[in-house]
Design goal:
There is one protein chain. This protein has one domain. Helices cover 62% and strands 5% of the residues. The chain contains 6 helices and 2 strands; from the N terminus they run βαααβααα. The radius of gyration is 17 Å and the shape is globular. A two-stranded antiparallel ribbon has the order 1-2. The longest helix has 24 residues.
Length: 153
């Protein structure tokens, strides 16, 4: 994978960052998806969960960290082989949290088909949906560029 630089509209993305940060804060001590460990080994579960939480938190910090002073100066973020996979995982975790915390009433089918009644949503839910779509778009971009059949310039 080559380095990908993406120019974003600051006016569109800046309001979504608060929603993304809040979802990340929610996940500080909570896995985005429940952990099921076979058997009754509490030590194994605690150790595994602790390791997964540390990884999830690091991935989310890396994603949120992309939106720093340089981003607000240039409007650009960059992806490369060192940050692509953590960013993909962070996008997934945040989307799962947004879906669970803000978009549960919308329903998975509506979310996946993009048939969401925006006009009927309260402002907070609209922002959460916009963040959900933004993160999905980042994921699609990265997955496309991870495809080994995509030629590198």
């Amino acid at each position: 994978m080559k380095r990908i630089e993406v120019k974003l509209n600051l006016d569109m993305v800046a309001p979504l960052l608060d929603v993304m940060k809040a979802a990340g804060d929610d996940l500080g001590h909570l896995l985005a998806i429940g952990l099921t460990v076979p058997g009754d080994d509490a030590d194994l579960k605690d150790g595994w969960e602790s390791e997964l939480l540390a990884g999830q938190s690091g991935d989310i910090r890396q994603l949120i960290g992309m939106f720093d002073r340089d981003f607000f100066a240039t409007g650009s973020i960059a992806f490369d082989p060192t940050n692509c996979e953590p960013i993909l995982r962070a996008c997934s975790a945040l989307r799962l949290r947004l879906r669970e915390a803000y978009l549960k009433q919308v329903g998975d089918e509506s979310l996946e088909s993009n048939e969401v009644p925006l006009a009927e949503m309260p402002e907070e839910q609209r922002k959460a949906y916009a963040a959900y779509i933004f993160l999905a778009t980042l994921q699609e971009l990265l997955v496309h560029h991870l495809d080994p059949n995509v030629p590198e310039d």
